Structures are given as C-alpha cells and as structure tokens.
Known about the structure:
mainly beta; Jelly Rolls
Amino acid sequence: xxxxxxxxxxxxxxxxxxxxxxxxxxxxxxxxxxxxxxxxxxxxxxxxxxxxxxxxxxxxxxxxxxxxxxxxxxxxxxxxxxxxxxxxxxxxxxxxxxxxxxxxxxxxxxxxxxxxxxxxxxxxxxxxxxxxxxxxxxxxxxxxxxxxxxxxxxxxxxxxxxxxxxxxxxxxxxxxxxxxxxxxxxxxxxxxxxxxxxxxxxxxxxxxxxxxxxxxxxxxxxxxxxxxxxxxxxxxxxxxxxxxxxxxxxxxxxxxxxxxxxxxxxxxxxxxxxxxxxxxxxxxxxxxxxxxxxxxxxxxxxxxxxxxxxxxxxxxxxxxxxxxxxxxxxxxxxxxxxxxxxxxxxxxxxxxxxxxxxxxxxxxxxxxxxxxxxxxxxxxxxxxxxxxxxxxxxxxxxxxxxxxxxxxxxxxxxxxxxxxxxxxxxxxxxxxxxxxxxxxxxxxxxxxxxxxxxxxxxxxxxxxxxxxxxxxxxxxxxxxxxxxxxxxxxxxxxxxxxxxxxxxxxxxxxxxxxx
Length: 515
C-alpha cells in the first residue's frame, strides 16, 4: 500500500488541493489500486470523526496533539505524520465502516475502467513555500475526481482485512483455426443421350413408346436411345438419322432403336409391319443393321424395303447390296439390287429376281363423302368463314381457303348430313404460322347434343403439310365417344389466336376407308 500520496489525499479532503496537485492525485488513483482503497478508508474516517465526537461517550474523548507551531504541517493520520492519540472507545458502527469500504472499492473499480488519458509532456511543478494557515486564503473547491458520491448500500457484510489484489489480466487461450467448411456437393448433371433420329413426317395416330409410357409423336421430335415407335392403322411416319439415312414406316408398324445390343453402328428392331429405307453409305466396321424376329439384315449403303409378318421377313433391294441372315440356323444370303429374299420356316434364304411389273396406276381414291379443292376460285356454300385466294406458293394448286379469322367451319350455315362410323377419315393440307402453333378440330354431334374438340400436336409451320387421321382415333383419351350412326352436323378447323397467326387449308376430304 502506498502512503507517499497522503499529502495529496488529505489536501483534497481539506479542500486545499491546488489544481495541478489534483491532476497528480487523479493519475495516482488510476495507476495504483491500493491507493484507491486507502483513499476510501481515509475519506470514511474523515467523515466518521465528527459523528463519533458528537456521541455521548462516558469514556475519555479523543485527544489530538498538534505539531510545534514553528513548523506548521498538515494534519496527518497515523502512521504517516500527525499523531492522534486514541483512547479505547466503544464499538465502532461497523455497518457504516463496511459501507465506506465498499464505496472505496466501487470507486476503484469505476476508475480502473475509465479510459487512459492521452500522455502529456511532463511539466515541472514547483511547490510554493507554505504560508501560515491563518493567512492562507481559502482556495476554491476543485472538482472532485470521478468517484461516485452515493452508492446504494448493499447487505452488510464483514469488512475485508485488506483490499483484494487487482485481478490478473485474463489471457485468452489461442483459438485453434476453424477447419475449412466441407465442400458443397456438386450438383448432379444429367447426361442427355444424343438423338439418334428426328421425326420428319407424322400422319395419323403415331405414338412414342419410351420410359415415360406412350405419348403422341409430332414432327420435330427427337428420338433417344431405347425409344420405340408405333403407328396405327392408316398412319405413317418418316424419320431421318444424322447421316441422312431416311426411314419410312407404314401403317400398323412397331419398331425401336436397338443400339444398346452392343453391335457397332446403327441397329433398328422391326417387330411388325413394314418400312422402306434409304440408307446412307456406312463404314464396313459400323454397318446399319435391321433386326426382325426371323432375320438380321446388314446394310452398308442401299435402298431397300422390309416387310415382317408373324412367320417371315421379306427383303427387297432396289439399290446396293444387303446381307440377309436367318436367325434359326444362321444361314445367310447376299441380296443385290433388283432381288428379294425371304427368311422363314420351310424356305432357304436365297436371292431371287424381282418380277418386273407393268407400271401401276395410282390406287383409286376411296369414295369421298366430301371433297373440296377450291380450284374454281369460289368458296363452297357449306363453308362458313375464310376467303378463297392463291395463298402461300406451291406447285399443282392455284387456290386455297384462307382462314382470315383462324377458323373454318364445314356445315356452319347448313348442317351436314354426315353419319359417324369408325371408318371415317379426315384429311386436308395446311399451312400454319407462326412456329409452335397447334391445329384443333371440333366436331358437333347433333344426335347426342354435345361437341368434342381434338387438339392435335404441333405441326410443321410455314410450309405446306398434310394431315390425315381416322376420326375414331381422335377419341383415344376422351371420356365420351361418338356412337355408330350419330349425326355430325358440323366440323371446324382452327388454330389458337396468336400474333401474326395464319391458317390456310386445301384439298379437304371426308372419306370412308373400308377394311
């Protein structure tokens, strides 16, 4: 505990401490915690002496011996100078003493938290010669140091024998560097198989058979590995490989990509029906292969046609050469242009010349219930809406019907006398814009008094194409169907309204195709 600053403490308590000494006292209190505790005790005793003198005490009172007059000194408390003879006194008020000690500790704590003042250049202070107390003018009371004047009295507790030592600075143990965050898993990238072919023509009911079930096919659909194709009766389609190989599948045909069989090159599996192929030149190590239930056809580059029945496979070659291998015994034959061969039970797979047939006349058209070609330049009375005009340019036709309001109705002004049957087929040529448009067909059943709308797939746009479909195939997913003999009073062809939309139709036919 430091006692060298008692002069400053007592001077402050007497109210005679000059301003320069007040700065020294404030700095000493900040730097010496023990001095703060002593300051609190001296302040407590200074405040308690008047109270003790005022109490009625039967014992002798406190005697104070002043120093010699020729050497005036400040009043000091033992043990630092001034002696105060203290006789035995009754028990002191320990509660007040405890409150004072706690007051001092609180002052020490508050001053220790105050920010350190900025260092100032040292100033040499000369202490003036002391003057007689009587003649000394009363100095103005300096501002008190930052010590709280009042602190709520806590619950009385025994006074500590000595102030607690200042707490040691807490040393924060070095923090181990945090481990790097785990790397976020990379998103899975779905590898999309490249398309092995693209649909270039689709007529009638044509279905894509894949992992997601059966979905309608449309022009522009890309075929992926494992995809299959099925055509209904009176339907047909064409698709093209990236190398230019063109396949035309006929009605009631089922085929699929079979490249996953491990063979090099392209492999097509034909389960039933028939197809015609114009095969681009293939490398000998990667031929084009057609698998049927009875045979394997290996193609290097040619034009051919294949027909599959439940018991046999017939191959006809128009250009190039194709090897036909029968699966039952691996017997094979090389079939050249102008030849055919059959693989099946009871017949050797040997090439035979194709019979030269006289030029065939085109097959007669089925009897048409309604047929409109608009070549006379006039709109027929049965049609409502549209204007007959030249339309988009094409060979072999002068006029067509322009759906200026994107809708044309056959039977709009005069109801049709048309009876429904499963043999009815609707066919027409169309030119549609903009790309992405869909053609829809609405049929009004006067017998059951309801209308049915079939929304077709997206069609080839800004070019002339042909649509042909049995009307019964339009009801594949319908909950309500037409019955045989129901009267169809009108038929409407339309597209959804879109900016720059256009619809032209020509050669509209309603026929009955008997099996």
